[in-house]
Amino acid sequence: MNISIRAPIAGMLLSAFSFAGTSGAQEAENEKLSARERAIVPVAALTAKGDLPGLKIALAEGLDSGMGVNDIKEVLVQMYAYCGFPRSLQGINTFMALLDERRQSGISDKPGSEASPIVSDEAKYERGKRILETLTKRPETGPKTGANAFSPEIDVFLKEHLFADIFERDILSFKEREIATIAALTALGGVEPMLRSHMGMGMNVGVTEAQLRELLSIIEKKAGAKEAADGRKVLAQALGKSKAQGEENSANEYSAFPKGNKASSEYFTGTAWVKILVPQDETKSYSVGDVTFEPGCRNNWHTHDAGQILLVTYGKGFYQEKGKPARALSAGDVVVIPSDVEHWHGAAPDSAFTHIAITNNSPRGAAVWGEKVTDEEYAGATAGK
What we know:
Blueprint: E1 5-6, H1 9-16, H2 35-49, H3 52-64, H4 69-83, H5 85-104, H6 124-136, H7 146-150, H8 152-166, H9 174-188, H10 192-204, H11 209-222, H12 225-244, E2 261-262, E3 268-269, E4 272-278, E5 286-293, E6 298-299, E7 302-303, E8 308-321, E9 327-330, E10 334-337, E11 343-347, E12 353-360, E13 368-369, H13 375-382
Antiparallel strand pairs: 1-13, 2-4, 3-6, 4-5, 5-12, 7-13, 8-9, 8-10, 8-11, 8-12
């Protein structure tokens, strides 16, 4: 391919950062977790992890944030369904000891609301099934599949006990229960399918993508960086699946930076957004940009006279050099692009994708643009990966 379109340095920064999806920009205040919701996260996560010293601190912070004793106790009780009786009982014992210490220190903690009695003539299985349908937004009809078919008693226990006996209690909302569940499963680890499912349920009952990212940031600080990193990978999968099912994909959902300006359709197929973070000036020979690709978006074939580095921050994407197989990318990957190597990069068909692009500028410009990546080339590069 003969590459012939050279973008000038000044006007090219928006398009020369070619490149990868960053979404998640400045979240409005009402997009953040409430103080009560933030307090639930470490209580659930540290109970699941069995970190009792850390849990004691989180429990005290929860009380100080305004949660009642019964509110926190409800979170600890719910945990037995997700991390077992031993962890739940250890959490309750830790909470009892903390309350005794606070009473002896003259601190009077408010009890909070008692759970309302559940009065219904309807069978628990049917009540639990209806609650599960609310959480998943899918009808519980047809034959059982998977574990529920293999072990029908599990299906009964889930419907009657988890979703009727526990989720039907009114001390915590469905949203708060899903926040607690997501936090616990993230800290627990090794349960990615269940975590992905509950992230979807959480979004169905009002947990926003921005709030899920905030939840994982709390996990990182309170329960561990690895747990948070693994959780972010599952979140990327959950978000990609929801977008593939037709839900709105917002370029503002996935990055710490504002989405910037829409990239030129001359150099991109699909929708991309570019935010210049560090412009080139007389003191620097490089520029830094944050780029968001919506699902299926990619840039043209192009080269960089002085090379480029990509730091992947979110989602699933691809990088391909001419004549070589495409490389699948996900958050945490680094791509070092040599000088004058013809390539393209962009999002997977079912996921938004973001990266930071560090571009060395030469006297001739930051990038030399070529032809668009055809649908056939893109399909061949991304198929089965």
